[in-house]
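Reviewer 2 asked us to include a model.

Predict the structure of this chain.
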Amino acid sequence: AASAPRRANPLPPIVQPLTFSFLPLTDAAPIVVAHARGWFREQGIASTLRRVGSWTASRDSLNRGEAQAAHMLFSMPVAGACGLLGHAQIPLVIPWVLSRNGQAITLNTRHLGTTGTEAGELRARAVAGRDAGRPLVFGHTLRIGTHAMLLRYWLAASGIDPERDVALITVPPPQMVENMRGGRMDGFCVGEPWNIRAQQEGLGYTAITSQEIWPDHPEKVCAFTAAFADEHPDAVVAVLRALHQAGTWLDQPENFDEAAEVLGRPEYLNCDPALIRARLGPDIDYGDTRQARLGHRLSFAQPGLNRPQASHAIWFLTQFRRWGLLFGEPDYSALAARSLRPELCQRALDELHVSDPAPADGPEIFFDFRVFDPESPADYVRSFDSVHVHG
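Predicted model (structure tokens):
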């Protein structure tokens, strides 16, 4: 019998089977696409995907050893480093940033006309609700999550004290739209496709995108336990190589349609691909007559994007401090260093022969024109009118 044709580029030996936990969100795309298109296997990883319903479930999947890698909020390993991620949390690390931008704050349609230049009207409603004992209710996805911090920042910049003027509740991403449909929320901050889904169902509209609040902010990461990263660096780097391949493919507009189709499959987001596709590019319909082309879009592999930066970890620590989640002044630099593994990112890029100089950990400007200088985090915290520090 004729022998099988010899492969020009045989697959590397499987490093080891790895399970990845993920939430049904568009920014899980690099993990989903690397699995679906076989890039994990090409890099020597036998991948299994495990869909979970909340960020606490993502955390628990690593704690229990049910997964070795997890789609996770950037702020979660940072919070874990200072004891804010739950009792007996196993230390987590970030070797790779999966995405930047791509989240949004959605308001219930009953608040149409209260954002933009009329933001004062939303504040008036918040104060009236507070005084009447029926505060406006806003949902975020985790108490120490990126959505909670961005929502708090936006509310406070709009003159609404999130600690005193409104009620904040934690809602898993897949339950956001259902809670708004039931009339239980005035707004929420979450990733896609849940903002566009609320808009498509006539329940809400996009007040502001996360990249308009903090241009090019870090969002999701591929997290590992510190122990796994220390014991299996080769496996981690193999994962990162595949994620770079997937992210590069995802950032090309000619692949948006196929990416939306893959993500929309029942085993992944179980969502109409048209809704996913609507928020992959820079053009946005806010659902309240506004339309725009955003300067920063959901991105997965732009230069400098995937490297975890200490300044970003420090910003989240300043917000934990600002809102009274951290007692006493933290050692910002030490906690950031404990959470990040940029050397593994660098090794993966070097092995792919990708030239990607480390970005400067310099000052960043937010939508309210406040400047965050990572060299002076304590002064930055004290500069706000709304501060609820303890100790």
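Residues 308 and 342 are 6 Å apart (CA to CA). The chain has 17 helices and 14 strands. We have added this to the supplementary material.
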